[in-house]
Write a structure and sequence with these properties.
mainly alpha, 2 helices
């Protein structure tokens, strides 16, 4: 038996394990000046968050 429930209006919530997995990536990016990785997985899901971090 399989049940799938979709929440089309839901926001992704990244737990502590996600942050721990993303930390080595952030550390590598510190070595690569000028290279930036952004997305909802990296610090906020709103459009405002994306614009603020891009600046």
């Amino acid at each position: 038996m399989l049940r799938i429930v979709r929440h089309d209006q839901a926001l992704p919530l990244y737990n502590g394990a996600h942050q721990a997995r993303f930390l080595p990536i952030k550390q590598c990016l510190l070595q690569l000046l000028g290279l930036h990785v952004e997305g909802d997985f990296a610090g906020g899901v709103s459009v405002h968050d994306r614009i603020t971090r891009a600046c």
